[in-house]
Description:
398 residues; alpha/beta; Aspartate Aminotransferase, domain 2; 7-stranded mixed beta sheet; 12 helices; 35% helix; binds pyridoxal-5'-phosphate
Amino acid sequence: MSPETLAPVSTLVTPPTPSSSTEFDQYVMSTYGRYPMTLERGSGCRVWDTEGRAYLDFVAGIATCTLGHAHPTLIDAVTQQIQKLHHVSNLYYTQEQGALAKWLVEHSCADRAFFCNSGAEANEGAIKLARKYAHTVLGIEHPVIITAHASFHGRTLATITATGQPKYQKNFDPLMPGFHYVPYNDIAALEEAIAILDGNERQVAAIMMEALQGEGGVRPGDRDYFQRIRKICDEKGILLILDEVQVGMGRTGHYWGYENLGIEPDIFTSAKGLGGGIPIGAMLCKAFCDIFQPGDHASTFGGNPFATGVALKVCQTLEQENILANVRARGEQLQNGLRAIAQKYPALISEVRGWGLIIGLVLNPQSELTSSDVVKARSLRGFCWFLLGQRWFALCHR
Length: 398
Ligand SMILES: Cc1ncc(COP(=O)(O)O)c(C=O)c1O
């Protein structure tokens, strides 16, 4: 489809709110500030609203649609699997769950996988695993997990506590004990925090970070910082957990975000792009910290043959269609184009940053423009972008 078919700005100066949205708001809790458009169809990297207008989907679902919308392999995988077997209890073996775990282990640094349904749930699993490891292996009575300011790890009580952003925690206290925050990419601050926390009795059980902070403003991790963290963890027996929910599954041009940093985590989590838009989460770990026993952790829907069968096809398609190379090439092309725009308008855009196809634009703090203004204007012109704060917003395209 040619770009000419995208919604022309002239027809969209005052976007109509579809009447169905009034009814929607009557029945659905208002946990999201929604844009005034109702999406009803997608194909490839485009979505269409109920008025028939096309949009280029730079949000990629919400960093979920690994193969784009309505990819024939995805349709085929969903159709085949629902006809064969969609759900049975984890009390039984299924081929699909085993095959997905094998693919993930063979394409990462991990040795084992646990499956759940979302990113927050995967991170909950990682937090539980780290706490059990602290109590039973390290002999730590009051384990602390260090996370970063501006991080994002999900919306459950434990993961909003892990998330180093007070705006997500406001009014939900009492929060979970056992978390401590440090500035991202600041090794001196991390070393000081560990020294203080472990001053009287050993407390630091794990360090949990994003390889690139997504919601925190598309902030890539420094290679030196993460290599030093890996060393500290090795020296002190601290577990390194990486939250790969946003940056994993090829978004950065590598299967996993940590590949950009030249390190391996002990535990990492995945969700979003893993099922190509079908809900699934995973928590993976190295053999030495695979200490969960039957009964320690579980999920009714986690690892069901429908989600794992489809996710396996998504993973195999990433490999067979050589999508990682395309992510790197398209990412470079997009970043170069955005840098040229930033150079032309330095009063408006101060930075373009990211890896592969997770790219953030930072607005010049001197300008009046906010990210919300830009995202609204872009959606009027037929682009879906998403904002990450007052001054920056992101594009996650395929
Ligand atoms: C880095 C990261 N971790 C965890 C989550 C939470 O994932 P979910 O919404 O699937 O629970 C997100 C969601 O945006 C995320 O970006």
